[in-house]
Design goal:
This protein is an alpha/beta fold and 258 residues long. The protein is 38% helix and 24% strand. 44% of the residues are buried. It binds adenosine-5'-triphosphate. It comes from Pseudonocardia yunnanensis.
Length: 258
């Protein structure tokens, strides 16, 4: 991989605002009074140890988990507490840590099915699937059966399904897990391309190099709490982040000025 350039953060109006988000599962506080915002066109990375509350935060933003308290606003619309289909129609799309595709169906069918949740007719959904295929340069994959594809291509299909919804905000949950270095670079390229087109994106990722290469800004969660946020290199040098997550070796690798 190349030495990460430091992307310049957009300073647009916030698209997503999360205020004092708390999610409890019985006695467990998975997310504890977390507040952050994401600017229009920003690429935000979320890191933290296993069980820190990253996916639960995503689930709350996407409507898959009901917040115990707190407010999530997309643009002018409060989305916290709405069901996932409503949230998706309002413009928040997500991928999953483990791919969730219809393996016996073709790529085209998978993407068209996703598009059909926002399109008025099957014809319009199929047209949207073709647009997304072109955007992601995956026209040659469209007739392939999903289950027969390598994992990297399945991840591309996951992104395609999310994009089929014409999202304003895209949530990518550990897209790189299980991929080799070449495949990781390939998916980084896809995410970069989407970011360059102005799409607002939040990425959860354990591969720090990916976070460094993609993110304008990084949030760090630990035990459900937001312990740091800021420019990637600053965050990687933060003593609390080093102690809770990175360890000194990674801090040296990623916290050095480029
Ligand atoms: N549906 C659930 N019911 C009960 N506990 C849950 C549920 N979902 C998550 N948790 C717990 O909430 C905490 C936060 O989990 P979460 O999956 O959000 O962490 P994470 O930061 O995404 O971790 P990882 O990096 O391992 O994916 C963990 O203790 C987890 O066991």
């Amino acid at each position: 991989m190349t030495t990460p350039a430091v992307p310049v953060a957009p300073t647009g109006a916030p698209l997503l605002q999360v205020d004092e988000l708390t999610v409890r599962f019985g006695g467990l506080v998975a997310v504890n009074a977390v507040s952050f915002s994401v600017a229009e066109g920003e690429l935000l990375g979320i890191i933290g140890p296993n069980g820190a509350g990253k996916t639960t935060s995503f689930n709350a933003v996407a409507g898959a988990v009901r917040p115990t308290s707190g407010t999530i606003t997309l643009g002018e619309t409060v989305v916290s507490g709405l069901p996932p289909e409503r949230v998706a129609r309002l413009g928040i799309a997500r991928t999953f840590q483990a791919v969730r595709l219809f393996r016996a169906m073709s790529v085209a069918e998978n993407v068209t099915l996703a598009a059909s949740t926002v399109c008025r007719s099957l014809t319009a959904a199929a047209r949207r699937a073709d647009e997304v295929a072109e955007l992601l340069s995956m026209g040659s994959l469209m007739n392939a059966e999903v289950g027969a594809l390598p994992l990297a291509d399945q991840k591309r299909v996951e992104i395609a399904r999310a994009l089929a919804l014409r999202p304003r905000l895209l949530l990518l949950d550990e897209m790189m897990s299980g991929l080799n270095q070449e495949e990781t670079l390939d998916i980084i390229g896809v995410v970069r391309q989407l970011g360059a087109q102005g799409l607002t994106i939040i990425v959860i990722e354990h591969v720090l190099k990916v976070i460094m290469e993609l993110s304008h800004r990084v949030l760090v969660l630990d035990h459900g709490a937001l312990i740091a946020q800021g420019a990637p290199r600053e965050v990687m040098r933060d003593p609390q982040v080093v102690a809770a997550y990175l360890g000194p070796q990674a801090a040296r690798t990623f916290g050095e000025p480029s």
